[in-house]
DNA sequence: GACGACTGATACTTTTTGGCTCTGAATCGA
DNA sequence: TCGATTCAGAGCCAAAAAGTATCAGTCGTC
């Protein structure tokens, strides 16, 4: 009957409080200031940090009476503890939400490319068919980030651009978006109707990050058109990207859906034989919660259809 | 000066201990059994769970005196708290590993004389005892180069030929290699067994660079034997040096260890009263990272001895 | 329908731990 | 060398956690 498990040990447990203390000291690089910031005296702070080091069997800080520095182990702890505390806070919020009567919380990661167009539709559909569901949406993410977040269960479902590498994930195809050219409105090509990719060979490009699916497909398409795009600026957020275009810094290839972003000073032009990028919804295959199943059903009747958008 | 931040609050902090307790109760669905499993009495467990519920402002468990059930919020907390605890445990492990120096990057400079013989043994030992360590090896370096590189912290540790000039460095002796004569196989001295250094007085020499330790010791030994070697070719890499010998351009003095370089057309002959060169490992004295310490420990059981390689 | 067994909560005590003040030791700058 | 600064240690107290004893429901059983 004895379920002795590593999870049940209680001695030498690193506590949340200690992580908070450590972060304060590591950020301030000063016990006194950290203590002040934590609204406590300096000696107990020193003691807690010392205890933490003993529990981990590892020196985290190098103290000279003059200054405090981080060891390599300390650097690692600092970075990871910050993430951990953020997750704990998120968890607290989510539990409170459910406690207050929400039927559940789904954490959704959304590709930068779908954050503004598709997501509002999904949120509306969810509100209609799953009242009580709270969506915790993180937008402007890249596919590799989302894959990791799904695997580590930091998000429950993601709207992303295939392909994916992980074999722990399932995919449901949503739609195919052609790439269009975003040009400054006074650009000479803006007067033309239909462009060839090759027309852009000498243009400076504003691009999504290297790791993004749109970038990968754009670059490959350019290569096939016989040139290698000269990227003058890289940016993750589409809104930023488009404002660079509007400022005349260069041209960009963005998914069709993006055209709705009618930014002052930008025109969109279609491409002949336009390359296309898929959009899909992904989840961890072994996540079989009813909540997720029901949410995925929202995509069955394509979310883009019918009268449920404003 | 007041850095008031949400991260610094300490009241109402959900603690790791509480999550452990909750998980135990949620899994057992029974306070008594959970308390037993946690090696504690039942009342304090009830209190902690109650406190947790108050901190979250949310009911987590439905208690009938007959059984305990999870609310939706409780289910959520259970699932996510398990993940969180796993992450914390992983973090503890990783911090310990880094603290013990088991992972990280070390930049190693290696004397030309040891690049091929000693280094592979060291790399193997490191792979075995310090998994996660990445070695960035630069081979075929000379002692003065390595001294400077160590001082400027462009490398962390070096395998070199003493003596060294710098007083910022520490040394650990590794082994002593006698110098032997490398001769073209058709050389008249190749027929003799044991040579005197003086026999070489009129021979053309292929030598290591002036700044190398082997060259310094060779030249000094020749001087004591009553002649000054006539150097016809200078080269840094041993493989190149030996191929000059094979080509009949001259003779050379190389450390014993080098004989394994069985190049076609070369014979090695021992010297009476052979001069010897030391091999040592050196590091910057004030570099006290755990990573380096652990790496240096690899040399304690001399890396040249057998037994510890696969 | 009453009693006993079981289960979680409550009241109270003991133990442990975290925090505070005061002080000391080491280092840096003047 | 002296003062200022900074982190650590000692001793004390308060708060929190854990323990003991007990109570109050609920369910099953006779």
Provide a descriptive summary of the structure in words.
- The structure is a homodimer of 310-residue chains.
- With 310 residues, chain A is α/β, with parallel strands linked by helices.
- Chain A has 9 helices and 12 strands.
- Chain A has helices at residues 16-28, 31-37, 42-56, 72-99, 118-129, 143-151, 213-224, 238-246, 290-297, and strands at 61-63, 68-70, 104-111, 133-141, 157-160, 169-184, 194-195, 204-207, 230-234, 252-255, 266-271, 276-284.
- The interface between A and B is large, with 51 and 54 residues.
- The structure holds a DNA duplex (30 and 30 nucleotides).
Helix and strand topology:
Two copies of one chain form a homodimer.
Chain A: H1 16-28, H2 31-37, H3 42-56, E1 61-63, E2 68-70, H4 72-99, E3 104-111, H5 118-129, E4 133-141, H6 143-151, E5 157-160, E6 169-184, E7 194-195, E8 204-207, H7 213-224, E9 230-234, H8 238-246, E10 252-255, E11 266-271, E12 276-284, H9 290-297
Parallel strand pairs in A: 3-4, 3-5, 7-11, 8-9
Antiparallel strand pairs in A: 1-2, 5-12, 6-10, 6-11, 6-12
Helix pairs in contact in A: 1-2, 1-4
Chain A binds a DNA duplex (30 and 30 nucleotides) through residues 17, 30-32, 40-48, 50, 63-68.
**Termini distance of chain A?**
58 Å
Low-pLDDT ranges of chain A: 1-7, 302-310
How is the main sheet of chain A built? Answer: 8 strands, mixed
Number of helical regions of chain A: 9
β-strand amount of chain A: 15-25%
State mean pLDDT of chain A (0 to 100 scale). 86
Estimate the helix proportion of chain A, in percent: 25-40%
Query: What structural class do helix, strand and pairing data of chain A support?
Result: alpha/beta
Number of beta strands of chain A: 12
Using CB atoms under 8 Å apart, which protein chain pair has the greatest interface?
A-B, 51 and 54 residues
The shape of chain A, in one word, is: globular
- Oligomer state of the chains in this structure: homodimer
Q: Helices and strands of chain A, in N-to-C order? A: HHHEEHEHEHEEEEHEHEEEH
Radius of gyration of chain A: 25 Å
